[in-house]
Design goal:
The structure is a single chain. The longest helix is centred in the last third of the chain and has 17 residues. By secondary structure, the chain is an alpha+beta fold. The chain is built from two helices and two strands. Strand 1 and strand 2 form a beta hairpin.
Length: 77
């Protein structure tokens, strides 16, 4: 998966590995909260995004296969 961020007249492209799982419920909310939290901790924006993508990728990789439909991420693997 890839996404672009525009900052100071520069475009940054972020990519991450795609995991074959249906358990992706909450990925967008988790990513935005992780980015916000990292920025609140004083981490610069681009580094905050990179660290947050790593966090979400790990949560997807270790997602929980529970319930019906799309299962949740595992925020604490």
């Amino acid at each position: 998966a890839a996404s672009d961020v525009y900052k100071r007249q520069r475009i940054y492209r972020f990519e991450s590995k795609r995991y074959e799982t249906k358990n992706t419920h909450g990925t967008g909310c988790t990513l935005s909260a992780a980015i916000s939290g990292n920025i609140a901790k004083g981490i610069k924006t681009i580094k905050a995004i990179k660290e947050s993508i790593k966090f979400v990728s790990k949560a997807i990789k270790n997602s929980l296969d529970i319930g019906n439909g799309n299962g949740p991420l595992n925020h604490f693997p």
